[in-house]
Amino acid sequence: MxxxxxxxxxxxxxxxxxxxxxxxxxRDLTDMMDILQEMLRESGN
Length: 45
Known about the structure:
Blueprint lengths: L3 H7 L4 H11 L6 H13 L1
């Protein structure tokens, strides 16, 4: 039977996960508000 407490003590996060988190959080993604602001700017000209 699996001893979950022992398994949790051995747990170490994967380095690939850390790299993926950095890539995701460091991206400047366009969201709906950016699109709407750009549309308003273009329609005002």
